[in-house]
Design a protein that fits this description.
Layout (H helix, E strand, L loop, with lengths): L5 E6 L2 H7 L3 H7 L2 E8 L4 H10 L4 E5 L6 H14 L10 H12 L8 E5 L3 E3 L13 E4 L5 H11 L13 E5 H13 L7 H8 L11 H12 L5 E4 L2 E2 L13 H7 L5 E3 L8 H7 L2 H6 L2 H10 L6 E2 L2 E4 L2 E4 L1
């Protein structure tokens, strides 16, 4: 065991925050964190400050525009597209890119050696150490591979995928000086742009704009090449499709106790549709008595309920989606 602690940042909207705050005590009980910093729009400030007045837990609000202006990001994305003769489309996903760049930009204001980003729709289920007993941090890895991410990494740095698994999970522990070093290298890349995120936009191939960058995949791959012994790899087990089985507000202590036998965290992504028949199976006491949660989940996946499944991934058209 070690006593290394760090800030936890959660980029979020007001709607997602209203769900996350129900589990604040779990974050502090299960993660080695100093505080939680909610990064979001101005309309989130009042809700976080209200929670501050009612709890002794160290939580803070950071206005996202103090890190990166959304208008500036939109301008950078528009510059990239217009330089090639295109216009911004409704499916350009600037918000998806924005939250990734906010996580990177937090390195410029963080006064700790490390900080961890955590997805607002994910709940920790059991105690999670982010360093081994000798003080080396973990990269938590999962089975996911989107080739578009590595095309951009190749364009930026000249190297591609370096491990069989993926650095993309629902969280990542960043080392501040490494993130700053990576951003500096991005700024030296031979692409147009006056900011690291504009440089990234210009490094993304035009046919790859919808899924052209992952901050987790990029940081993990960059560290693996530039600081090869800095982190240790560890398999991460999360119930990615938890929202198919129940609403996050209905998660009970008994549910958590059972899920924590196999899973580190549960993710309640809103685009996964809640299925009442799956909740009936999930809460069936006979299944819980006979099956571990991983066995239960695996049986649902292998039944084909969610679609074609193989080797930890669901196939959706040309995409392989993590589960």
């Amino acid at each position: 065991m070690n006593n290394i602690r760090f800030p936890l940042i959660i980029p979020t909207t007001l709607n997602d925050y209203s769900r996350t705050k129900r589990n604040l005590e779990d974050f502090f009980a299960l993660l080695p964190i100093l505080k939680i910093v909610f990064i979001g729009p101005a309309d989130l400030k009042e809700s976080v400050e209200e929670e501050q007045r009612s709890t002794s837990l160290p939580i803070e609000f950071l206005d996202e525009t103090d890190l990166i202006s959304y208008d500036q990001l939109m301008g950078a994305m528009r510059n990239r597209l217009e330089a090639a003769g295109y216009e911004m489309a409704d499916n350009s996903r600037p918000g998806w890119y924005y939250q990734q760049f906010l996580k990177m930009a937090y390195s410029q204001v963080c006064d700790s050696e490390y900080y961890m980003s955590w997805d607002a729709d994910t709940i920790p289920l059991r105690k999670i150490d982010m360093f081994n007993p000798a003080g080396k941090p973990y990269f938590d890895i999962k089975p996911e591979c989107l080739s578009g991410y590595f095309r951009t990494i190749q364009n930026l740095f000249g190297f591609g995928k370096v491990i069989a698994r993926s650095f993309v999970s629902e969280h990542m522990l960043f080392r501040v000086d490494y993130m700053k070093e990576m951003i500096t290298e991005i700024m030296r890349a031979p692409f147009d742009g006056n900011s690291f995120y504009e440089k990234i936009f210009f490094s993304i191939d035009l046919d790859n704009m919808k899924r052209g960058f992952s901050e987790f995949e990029t940081y993990g791959t960059w560290v693996a090449m530039r600081h090869q012994t800095a982190y240790m790899l560890r398999e991460w087990h999360s119930l990615r499709r938890a929202h198919c089985f129940l609403e996050s507000r209905d998660l009970t202590g008994e549910d958590i106790k059972w899920l924590a036998l196999d899973f580190d965290a549960a993710t309640f992504e809103e685009y996964h549709t809640y299925e009442p028949e799956l909740e009936q199976l999930f809460r069936n006491p006979e299944y819980r008595q006979k099956l571990r949660p991983m066995q239960f989940y695996q049986s649902i996946l292998e039944s084909g309920y969610f679609g074609e499944y193989s080797d930890g991934m669901l196939k959706r058209g040309d995409l392989l989606m993590p589960v």
